[in-house]
Amino acid sequence: MHIKTEGTAKVRHSETGQLFEFDSDELNWEVVSGHERGMGPERLWAAETSRDGLGDLRWEIPEYPAGSFGDPTSHLNGHDLVQDFTISVEHEPDDPDAELDDQEDEPEPFDRVAAADEMKEWFYENYEDPANSLPYNSREGGYQWIYGGPETALDALQDGFAEEFPFEFIEKVASDITEEAGIWDWTPKPGRDWYGEEEEPRAVSEDDAERLSRLMPLAEDLVQDPESGIFSVQYKEVSKPDLFTATLAQIADTIEDVLEKQSNGLNAGSLDIRKLRRTLERYANDPQRVEMDLTTVHHSLTIQIGSGELPPSDENQALLSALQEGAQAIRATDPVVATNRRILREQALRELSPDALNQIAEAAPVLEAITEGDLREEMHEDILFLTEEMRAAPPRLPGVTRADAIILGQDEAVRVLGRSARILIALRRSPELINNLHDSTAFKSVTILTTLASLVGLGLMLF
Asked: What predicted TM-score, i.e. pTM, was given to this entire model?
């Protein structure tokens, strides 16, 4: 016997009217709950799928008594079912050898007390009361299941022990756990599958976010709109505006001098030149951003000249001097920026792996949805650089030691991951603002919190 799903289901979004289509192969049916009744076990079969914007969608079929199935029902988060699947139950043809096969398949005798203890120990190592670790949002229906779930004890034990013990025994142990704890819905404890890392995993706490924020400092304040919940950035004021403006003007002049001669090896499309021009044109009001970009480009050009990739021409040397003097002038007049540079220099930041870059790319829609103005624009540009421009850049220059090597994307990673940590801290300290943020974006609170937590975990793995 098996449940057969055919055709295509169509679901219309209750607010936008957008029509979503689902293929039958997206549904995988399994028993999600069961208990004994007068005529034998009663089971509930369910299959789930999801779409961004719709959330999790679920189809269910009750079975009671064994072999007798009710009509399928769908749970679509309030959205409209335009066309349903064709769902049927197919029974296997009678097999004359079935009785003999059943006898051969009977489970071997086992120590039920020892097996029950083993299953309970495994369950409590891998699942816990949601009140211990999950955020709670009454507007979104209660606990936010950021680690998966909710799962019943029967769900979990079936996944872990279905190949070892008969269903009736698993069901009895699950019932004992539920009665002992008084809890029906459980949350998985985050583990290796959640973080995708070889190191010992652990949940991302507020302390973790604060630690990453200290390791990736920026001289700015992130401000959250009290109505929409959207974040924006407030840059630190320039300490000496006249000196700062003159410094940037000098750098702009030296860039033009370099570009006048092709023999200098740089052109308007060079990565370092594009970074400098973008900084001068768009971020001249942010001393922290200017100092970071001047320092990074100075380091890059120094290595390229030292390796012979660029000539040590007068124009190139003048640009190097202007960059160094500009960064030093900002640090000399702004102690916060100077302290941040010292902290960043002390960190042995690892290079971003391809998996890490993919994780950042997947987080981009959420980060752009919860930010606005300059903050959103910088997030977009930094993620674009990390996930596209940096991958197309030349590899690290040969013969350069790790201490002196150019770690492409370090500044961009500091901004994306450090800011994500500070946003997560703000949301965890003011849970009511999560509701406003949820109402202002297309993402649920659980998606926002999960995305930010994953970025904080990624950031900590880089040190």
From this structure: 0.53
